[in-house]
Amino acid sequence: VLSHNLCTVLNVPHDPVALEEHFRDDDEGPVSNQGYMPYLNKFILEKVQGNFDKVEFNRMCWTLCAKKNLSKSPLLISDEDAFKVWVIFNFLSEDKYPLIIVPEEIEYLLKKLTEAMGAGWQQEQFDHYKIALNTSREGLSAWELIDLIGSGQFSKGMDRQTVSMAINEVFNELILDVLKQGYMLKKGHKRKNWTERWFVLKPNIISYYISEDLKDKKGDIILDGNCCVEALPDKDGKKCLFLIKCLDKSFEISASDKKKKQEWIQAIQTTVNLLRAGSPPPHKEARQKRKELRRKLLAEQEELERQMKELQTANENKQKELETVRKQLEAAAARAAEEEKKRLQTQVELQDRFSLELEREKMVRQKMEEQVAQKSSELEQYLQRVRELEEMYKQLQEALEDEKQARQDEETVRKLQARLLEEESAKRAELEKWHLQQQQTIQMTEAEKQELENQRMVKERALQVAMQQLEQLELERKEALAQYEEVKKKLETAANNTKSWKDKVAHHEGLIRLIEPGSKNPHLITNWGPAAFTEAELKQRQKSWKGKKATSE
């Protein structure tokens, strides 16, 4: 039944054999929407020539879907008006499924209806409705649009008849392409009498009827690019005359007043100009321009969103780079703190070792003094010469100890100075590296200057602290150098004292030869005569010197 009705409305010959062949009973399952669409496209829609009544076709489609989808709540418009709104929706909706009408087209339609009703357009009211609509979805379906118009939200104060007339006027303009219509007088071609007719202006034709119900059509005026319209002076008691000239005929028409006359002349002339230019009707051209504008705005919005995403990605990358730089700076600060901690620990260890060496040296010196005191008590019986010689040897021993101690102090100071110089050079290289990193960070971008100002201040404070540490190391190096000079002077003094004592001993040994009682142990013989101590005492002193030397090394 559906296929036969479609063929009848679309003026397509119906082929029942093809229908039975396409929907024969087989094992592939029952008839479905997916199965009917190929038949509809192949056997019906591909054969449509365009010479069918589109209103009847729309009315058939409306019959199929209205009962299922139309709201059950009471509306201020009739079913016929709802049908016309549904057809207008199909004309203004977007070219994609499911069909919706966007807020811009809703505003256009409501403005048209308000203008047809003779009321004022409430822009603020529609803006509030548009905001509420955009927050939930992109547009309205056909049935939601019917509910919106039927609810009277934008036609408050208007009766049902006014709303119905407005819907009919918009329907005639947008769907039936009626550019203008109304009653006028037409002069006959044969009897030359004047008769009132209802004229309907469309993009390429003017039809005239007995009345506005369009049931009894009396004729057509075919329009093309060669037609023209011009005003005529009043004659034969008729006013507001104008003439429509075509290739084969001319038509004299009388309007009700001058305003109507001017409106009809302007409307007919505009229609002829559009035919000459090959342009579509104004409402269709305006609809196409609105679609192109929305498409352009959508493309610009997508491009703007793409640019925003790119900027956001670049910003995230920049944030990651800044985070990486911050982590590197924190790692550098941690390494510097660790190195400073190690340096302080090393300095404390050296101080402890130096204190231990001093204590050990004091103990050794105390033992040596005790041994010398013991020897001195044993040699009190010797002569004054022996006492003087022993005193000389004692002083020589102390001079040798001072010289040895001075050499040890010199070696310690030299090592300390070398370590301080290495630390100073390492710290200077690190400071130069920090300074170079700071210069590179400052030169990166001017936009990052404000963000990195706090980090630069932290690095400057670290640089100041490091400079203070460098100055402190410089002072320590100068102090160590001064100590080195002092020890060097002591070493030179001790060497001079040793040399003077050796000269004195040589002088005395050459002049005086001591006569001593014999000893049970064999005496050591030196260049100046018999030694003042035995071989066992010499070995003991050699062991003591070797121990001190090993400790100092």
Automatic annotation (TrEMBL):
GO molecular-function terms, A-Z: DNA binding
InterPro entries in the record: EF-hand_SWAP70_N (IPR057836), PH-like_dom_sf (IPR011993), PH_domain (IPR001849), PH_SWAP70 (IPR057837)
Domain PH: 177-273
Keywords for the protein's UniProt record, in alphabetical order: Cell membrane, Cell projection, Coiled coil, Cytoplasm, DNA-binding, Membrane, Nucleus, Phosphoprotein
Coiled-coil residue spans: 283-504
UniProt key word Secreted: no
Domain of life, per lineage: Eukaryota
Protein location: Cell membrane; Cell projection, Lamellipodium; Cytoplasm; Nucleus
Pfam families: EF-hand_SWAP70_N (PF25530), PH (PF00169)
GO cellular component terms, semicolon-separated: cytoplasm; lamellipodium; nucleus; plasma membrane
Function recorded in the entry: Phosphatidylinositol 3,4,5-trisphosphate-dependent guanine nucleotide exchange factor (GEF) which, independently of RAS, transduces signals from tyrosine kinase receptors to RAC. It also mediates signaling of membrane ruffling. Regulates the actin cytoskeleton as an effector or adapter protein in response to agonist stimulated phosphatidylinositol (3,4)-bisphosphate production and cell protrusion.
Database matches in PANTHER family: SWAP-70 RECOMBINASE, SWITCH-ASSOCIATED PROTEIN 70
Subunit composition and interactions: The SWAP complex consists of NPM1, NCL, PARP1 and SWAP70.
UniProt protein name: Switch-associated protein 70
Taxonomic lineage: Eukaryota, Metazoa, Chordata, Craniata, Vertebrata
